[in-house]
């Protein structure tokens, strides 16, 4: 799905999808709103199907790729849900150690897109670990609506503690070179900001994609952070001025990028929100940032 597909869908539809995906409206209301639009040549079903992820599209690196080995690993989370589980992807030529990156999903559990992001990182030399916040409920259920409801049912503080435990597990992993990065998307962007605040001495580089600030501890953030924003993402962008002021007051190391004409979720290549040019630029900046701070 490219920019041309995005242009054909009215911006209102993207805004309503964001509201729906983040619990502001239910599916019925979302579809009813789509029905009020006059979309030339596109049915309501076609628009909704374009906006809702099709994970068959989200595989840039196969789990059978000979350059990586993908498995699952469990970790202890005494302050969270007791135990956590995630998708662990290791470069085939890892040797004795490598930099490690925690990959954090959106508000619906460990879906195929996030697994593919972990594989992309392993393909270029990182040990990547993508925890599933839904592990205590049996794991990502295979569809986003159910996954979103499951994640919403969990205690958010315990979810945060699970990701803190996952970050500590990964940093101490037998293959870790001691350098830990984190990258997250949407809710995962929030978790990336939260980890930078909660573990300022353990997170060596954080890249939140369209994530809101940590709810506490911003004054502890040291960075470095690379913050990625979508220009049309009003909900998240409204939080940035105050967050940036706090980072400046704390003399935290950070850089921020806004990608013109993009919507929340522009990196996710399984939906019409995907913007290929912006996604590739943001990802190249992300990997260069990790190379600088984790491989050096």
Question: Could you characterize the architecture of this molecule?
Answer:
It holds the Pfam family DLH. InterPro entries: AB_hydrolase_fold, Dienelactn_hydro, Dienelactone_hydrolase-like, TAT_signal, YqhI_dom. By secondary structure, the protein is an alpha/beta fold. It folds into 2 domains: 3-51, no CATH class; 61-294, Alpha/Beta hydrolase fold, catalytic domain (Rossmann fold), CATH 3.40.50. It contains 11 helices and 8 strands. The chain has helices at 3-8, 11-21, 27-34, 44-51, 112-123, 144-153, 156-171, 187-198, 234-237, 240-249, 276-294, and strands at residues 68-77, 82-91, 98-104, 127-131, 176-185, 205-209, 225-230, 254-259. Strands 1-2-4-3-5-6-7-8 form an 8-stranded mixed β-sheet, with helices on both faces. α2 runs antiparallel to α3. The radius of gyration is 18 Å and the shape is globular. It starts with a helix and ends with a helix. The model is unreliable at 1-7 (pLDDT under 50).
Order of helices and strands: HHHHEEEHEHHEHEEHHEH
Q: Classify the secondary structure makeup into a structural class.
A: alpha/beta
- What is the rounded Rg? 18 Å
Characterize the overall form. Answer: globular
CATH class of the largest domain: Alpha Beta
Counting DSSP H or I runs of 4 or more residues, the number of helices is 11
Beta-strand fraction estimate: 15-25%
Percent helix = 25-40%
DSSP, total strands: 8
Sheet with most strands: 8 strands, mixed
Tell me the number of structural domains.
2
- Taking the alpha carbons of the first and last residues, their distance comes to 36 Å
Strand order of the largest sheet: 1-2-4-3-5-6-7-8
The CATH architecture classification of the largest domain is 3-Layer(aba) Sandwich
**CATH fold label of the largest domain:** Rossmann fold
Output the CATH homologous superfamily of the largest domain: Alpha/Beta hydrolase fold, catalytic domain
Low-confidence stretches: 1-7
Residue-averaged pLDDT, rounded? 92
InterPro entries: AB_hydrolase_fold, Dienelactn_hydro, Dienelactone_hydrolase-like, TAT_signal, YqhI_dom
GO molecular function: hydrolase activity
Keywords: Hydrolase
Pfam family, one: YqhI
């Amino acid at each position: 799905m490219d920019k041309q597909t995005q242009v054909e869908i009215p911006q209102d539809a993207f805004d309503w999808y964001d509201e729906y995906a983040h619990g502001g409206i239910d599916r019925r209301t979302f579809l009813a709103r789509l029905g009020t639009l006059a979309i030339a040549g596109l049915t309501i079903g076609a628009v909704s199907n374009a906006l809702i992820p099709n994970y068959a599209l989200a595989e840039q690196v196969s789990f059978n790729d000979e350059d990586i080995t993908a498995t699952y690993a469990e970790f202890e989370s005494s302050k969270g849900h007791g135990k956590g589980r995630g998708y662990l992807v290791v470069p085939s030529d890892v040797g004795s150690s490598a930099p490690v990156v925690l990959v954090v999903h959106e508000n619906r559990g460990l879906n195929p897109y996030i697994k593919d992001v972990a594989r992309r990182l392993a393909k270029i030399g990182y040990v990547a670990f993508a925890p599933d916040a839904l592990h205590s409920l049996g794991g990502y259920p295979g569809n986003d609506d159910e996954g979103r409801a499951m994640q919403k049912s969990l205690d958010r503080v315990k979810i945060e503690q699970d990701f803190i435990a996952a970050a500590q597990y990964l940093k101490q992993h037998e293959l870790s070179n001691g350098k830990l990065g984190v990258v997250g998307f949407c809710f995962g962007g929030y978790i990336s900001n939260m980890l930078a605040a909660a573990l300022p001495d353990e997170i060596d580089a954080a890249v939140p994609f369209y994530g809101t600030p940590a709810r506490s501890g911003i004054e502890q953030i040291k960075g470095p952070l690379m913050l990625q924003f979508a220009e049309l993402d009003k909900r998240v962008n409204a939080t940035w001025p105050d967050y940036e002021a706090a980072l400046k007051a704390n003399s935290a190391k950070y850089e921020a990028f806004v990608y013109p004409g993009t919507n929340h979720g522009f990196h996710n290549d399984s939906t019409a929100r995907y913007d290929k040019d912006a996604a590739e630029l943001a990802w190249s900046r992300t990997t260069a940032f990790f190379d600088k701070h984790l491989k050096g």
